[in-house]
Design goal:
It is a single chain. The protein has four helices and 26 strands. It has 383 residues and is mainly beta. A hairpin with a 4-residue loop joins strand 6 (63-75) and strand 7.
Length: 383
């Protein structure tokens, strides 16, 4: 949905602006070029996918995309845009006027990890470079920074140091409808979860280098980021909730789902499996949502009884978010079904007991069924 929104905006801009020539600069002229390309990368121009080999020109409204590859683009004013694997960036606007104060550049970072370094030239003022993500806007004052964006649009921004001195490369302002934060120190970082939620307070990430910042931040956040998210959440919960703070419009009994209260009592079957409800990456930023929920450690929970009399520990009947197993009864048998990077389908005949131990990317655990004795199943699945 976010990608479609970006595209629709850019198509409108293209229709209006493609007929214009500003200060002698034609929109058909290249605004930069690919100077490094490895693996599977491409440029999309007017719905046509182009090879992005070294030396390929980059035009306004191009989409730079990587799959299993990386790409480095250099613009006319020596700005550099670097994309890691599985990243997508839209070049929404770029023109260079003889008067640098009138030059303009706008880039939309849509997913993955991208690094932007402002140019050493003088053809565009740094404050005229606008960078946006699905949840935040970024303005700069001569800086080098990275953005990491997950599939929900949640964004982490890290200010990088000057490559020569190691000190801060400047400062950037990260803002949206919820508020703003200014990053001024090397490796200062903030996370933005939605466009109307303020960025977290700035924290300094220790023990990293620019080369270590890639899409792994999606699945393994720095501890400083996790701690700041938790602190911001606690501060929000501790705010005064006096009478004047109560929003009575929030209480709408008609919006309650009567079935929700009996959800645990309804039978879950094979037809209830949602094949889209799969986490291909256990998202690092899910900690934001998880803090708003009551944490339940399934392994410590009381044994739950399925519809066929199977006692379960470490899982529940239905979809299990941690293990990605769908657990249900089928003709009196107990079924464990998982479809992530390959299908796991295990059927336990009625009356049996044992354990199912699973080692897969993002999950390691043991599920006990029945008395826990008898059948022993061990699955080790990797890419």
């Amino acid at each position: 949905m976010i990608t479609v929104l970006f595209k629709s905006i850019r198509k409108i801009q293209l229709t209006i602006a493609s007929l214009l020539i500003i200060s002698g600069f034609s929109y058909a002229e290249p605004i930069g070029g690919v100077i490094e390309s490895t693996g599977v990368t491409s440029l999309v121009r007017e719905s046509e996918r182009l090879e992005s080999d070294v030396g390929t020109d980059v035009n306004i409204y191009d989409e730079a995309e990587t799959a299993n590859g990386r790409m480095l683009i250099e613009f006319l004013d020596e700005e550099k845009l670097s994309l890691t694997e599985n990243s997508l960036v839209y070049i929404d606007e770029a023109y260079y006027d003889p008067d640098p104060s009138k030059s303009k550049m706008a880039i939309s970072m849509v997913r993955g990890t991208a690094r932007f370094a402002s140019g050493a030239g003088n053809r565009i003022k740094k404050q005229n470079v606008d960078v946006s993500t699905p949840t935040a806007n970024i303005t700069m004052r001569g800086t080098d920074f990275t953005t990491t964006i997950d599939e929900l649009g949640r964004t982490m921004v890290v200010l990088l140091p000057d490559e020569e001195t190691g000190a801060s490369s400047g400062e950037i302002v990260v803002y949206n409808d919820g508020g703003e934060v200014v990053l001024t120190e090397a490796y200062a970082a903030t996370v933005v979860s939605s466009y109307d939620t303020a960025p977290t307070q700035s924290v300094i990430i220790q023990g990293i280098t620019p080369n270590l910042i890639d899409n792994m931040f999606i699945v393994n956040p720095p501890s400083e980021i996790r701690e700041q998210i938790e602190e911001d959440y606690r501060d929000e919960k501790d705010q005064d909730q006096g009478l004047l703070d109560v929003d009575f419009l929030e209480f709408n009994e008609l919006e309650q789902d009567a079935l929700e209260d009996t959800k645990g009592d309804l039978e879950f079957s094979e037809l209830d499996i949602d094949f889209l409800d799969v986490d291909y990456l256990t998202d690092l930023l899910d900690v934001i949502e998880e803090l708003e929920k009551t944490t339940v450690v399934l392994g410590d929970a009381q044994a739950q009884t399925g519809t066929s009399g199977f006692a379960l520990q470490g899982a529940v009947v239905g979809f299990n978010k941690d293990s990605q197993y769908n657990v249900f009864e089928q003709d009196g048998d107990l079924v464990f079904f998982r479809n992530v990077n390959g299908v796991i389908n295990i059927i336990i005949a009625a009356g049996n007991s044992g354990t199912l131990e699973t080692e897969v990317e993002g999950y390691s655990g043991i599920i006990t069924f029945g008395r826990g004795e008898g059948i022993e199943i061990y699955i080790n699945q990797s890419n």
